[in-house]
Design a protein that fits this description.
294 residues; Rossmann fold; two-stranded parallel ribbon; 49% helix
C-alpha cells in the first residue's frame, strides 16, 4: 500500500542561526519531507548538530547566488519528490558600512545573496506549484526592509528590493493558489549579531579614530549589540513565527517577526514623515559627535 505524499519543504541557510532553529522545529514536527541546504563549506555543521540525511531529510549544498546550484536542487526535488510545496528563503548576509565605503563588488554580493538568490529560487519552484495549484513561499526579510539605519544602507537596500519583488509576486501567483509571505524580524538576541560583514573601508574606519565616519561605526555597533542583548526576541521565537506562517497560519503578506518591527511599522504608518525622520535621527546614539575629526 502506497504512503501518502508528504509535503516537501525547501529551506535555505539551514545550518546555523535562525535557519537551524526553523529546521529543528520542522524536524520535531515530522510533517514535511525536508530539504535542508547550506553552502558546501557549511554542510558539516548539520552533523555537528545531530542532523543527518534520511528518507525524510535531504541535506544539500546550495550557494543561493549560483543559478546552476539553484536549478540543480529544485530539478532533483521535482524529479524525485514531485516538487517543492513550501519554500523558505532564509539565507542572507549583512554588510555594516556607510554608503561611501561600499565597493561595487561588495554591493553586488549583498544583493546577490539577499535579493537575486531568493527571487531566483522562487522562479525555480513556481512551475511545479502552479501545476499543482498550491504552494507557499516565505521570505525571511527584516525590519530593514521597511526602514534603513546608518551603516546598514546596502543591507536595507537588498531587503527593500526583496520586499518590492515579493509584493508583486504575491499578486501574480495568488490566482494559482500560491501563498506568498514576508516575515520581518527586528532585533534578535542571537549569535548572528556578531556575524555581520565589514566592507574593506568600513573595517579601516572602525579602527581609525581620525576617519570622518569612525563615530558612526563606533556608536552604531555598540547600539545594535546593546539592543539585541536586551530584546526578548530570540532565534527560537522568530523561528516559531516563520514555521506558523509556513504552515498557513496567516494570509497576510507582511508578518512582523518581533515586537519592535510592529512598533516601527506603526510609527512609519501614522507619524508625519518629517517628525518620524527627525525623531529617529535624534535617537541615533552619539549623533552629535558624528563627523567630528579627533
Amino acid at each position: 500500500m502506497s504512503h501518502p505524499r508528504r509535503p516537501v519543504l525547501l529551506l535555505t541557510g539551514a545550518s546555523t542561526g535562525l535557519g537551524l532553529e526553523i529546521a529543528r522545529l520542522f524536524l520535531a514536527a515530522g510533517t514535511h519531507h525536508l530539504v535542508l541546504t547550506a553552502r558546501a563549506s557549511s554542510l558539516s555543521r548539520f552533523g555537528e548538530q545531530g542532523i543527518a540525511s534520511s528518507d525524510g531529510v535531504w541535506l544539500r549544498p546550495l550557494d543561493v547566488t549560483d543559478p546552476d546550484q539553484r536549478a540543480a536542487v529544485v530539478t532533483e526535488i521535482d524529479a524525485n519528490l514531485g516538487g517543492v510545496d513550501v519554500l523558505i528563503n532564509n539565507a542572507g548576509v549583512s554588510y555594516r558600512s556607510v554608503i561611501e565605503h561600499v565597493t561595487e563588488d561588495e554591493r553586488k554580493h549583498q544583493m546577490a545573496v539577499n535579493y537575486h538568490g531568493p527571487m531566483g529560487l522562487c522562479r525555480e519552484v513556481l512551475p511545479a506549484m502552479r501545476a499543482r495549484g498550491s504552494g507557499r513561499i516565505v521570505q525571511v526579510s527584516s525590519a530593514g526592509g521597511m526602514m534603513a539605519m546608518p551603516t546598514m544602507g546596502v543591507y536595507a537596500a537588498s531587503k527593500f528590493a526583496l520586499e518590492a519583488a515579493t509584493e508583486a509576486l504575491y499578486y501574480e501567483v495568488k490566482p494559482f493558489g500560491i501563498g506568498v509571505h514576508l516575515v520581518l524580524p527586528g532585533f534578535i538576541d542571537s549569535e548572528g549579531i556578531g556575524r555581520v560583514l565589514l566592507s574593506g573601508q568600513s573595517q579601516q574606519a572602525t579602527l581609525d579614530p581620525a576617519d570622518p565616519y569612525h563615530a558612526h561605526y563606533q556608536h552604531m555597533a555598540g547600539f545594535v549589540t546593546r539592543i539585541s542583548r536586551l530584546t526578548p526576541a530570540s532565534s527560537h521565537s522568530v523561528a516559531n513565527k516563520v514555521v506558523r506562517v509556513a504552515n498557513g497560519s496567516s494570509r497576510r503578506l507582511r508578518v512582523p517577526g518581533t515586537w519592535d518591527t510592529h512598533l516601527l511599522w506603526l510609527m512609519r504608518r501614522y507619524m508625519p514623515q518629517v517628525l518620524y525622520h527627525a525623531l529617529l535621527y535624534a535617537l541615533l546614539p552619539g549623533v552629535r559627535g558624528w563627523g567630528r575629526r579627533r
